[in-house]
Amino acid sequence: MARCFSTALGNVSVTSERQMEGSPLVNCVRQHRSRPTHGIGRYKHLLPEQVSQKKRDRLQMKEIDPGTEHTYGFLNITMTSYNMPTVEHYARYIHRLCNRLSVKVEESYAMPTKTMDVLLMQEKGSKMYTDAVLTTHQRIVQISGLSATFAPILLEILQSSQPEGLHLLVKEHTEADFKVRLKARPELEELLSQMR
């Protein structure tokens, strides 16, 4: 009779003297452990092809949807605060809330951080010194297709859950809002004006 044991070194088969030569138990080595999988578990061919980071297209402005009588077009929900974690968490909350309430979120993005120096003047003198540096963080969640009957309910939910120290603004998306996102290049503009 043959017995098979698995050890750290591999499979070991122990045979007794009474073993028959033609028995299928003679070679008790499990071959499936050493064979390659032949592509079992591959999934890369199922995924859509992704464009590489270097060949990314430039940010193009979408056509602004003015909306209809019963639905709004593109709306920007703008959050501004001096505390970055507060703005981040509230933007994430609004994004998830809109997804849960079947309001289409077009995009969610951050605006550049702005810094502002607070200057104080001495009582007796004309020198001004910096008292504090304030940084304002801004996040924008852009939604579309919000029905006019559901808008007051959504705004009430947003206002009731608004954290302290956060400024909330809801307005229609305009072309100026899109251009604010782009970096200004004054040198290029000067060259273009000289060419004309």
Walk me through what this model shows:
This protein has helices spanning 84-100, 151-160, 175-181, 186-195, and strands spanning 2-6, 11-15, 74-81, 104-121, 128-144, 166-172. It has a 4-stranded antiparallel beta sheet, with helices on one face. Strands 1-2 form a two-stranded antiparallel ribbon. Helix content is 22%, strand content 31%. It contains 4 helices and 6 strands, in the order βββαββαβαα. The N and C termini lie far apart (98 Å). With 196 residues, it is α+β, with helices and mostly antiparallel strands.
Give the topology.
Blueprint lengths: L1 E5 L4 E5 L58 E8 L2 H17 L3 E18 L6 E17 L6 H10 L5 E7 L2 H7 L4 H10 L1
Antiparallel strand pairs: 1-2, 3-5, 3-6, 4-5
What labels describe this entry?
alpha+beta; two-stranded antiparallel ribbon; 4 helices; 22% helix; 196 residues; 4-stranded antiparallel β-sheet
Quick recap of the structure?
The chain has 196 residues and is an alpha+beta fold. Helix content is 22%, strand content 31%.
| Cα-to-Cα separation, first versus last residue | 98 Å
The value of Rg in angstroms is 33 Å
Query: Uncertain runs with pLDDT below 50, 5 residues or more?
Result: none
Strand content: 25-35%
Helix segment tally: 4
E-strand count: 6
> Which whole number gives the mean pLDDT?
79
- Largest β-sheet summary: 4 strands, antiparallel
Helix content: 10-25%
Shape: extended
Strand ordering within the main sheet: 4-5-3-6
* SSE string, helices as H and strands as E: EEEHEEHEHH
Q: Structural class per helix/strand content?
A: alpha+beta
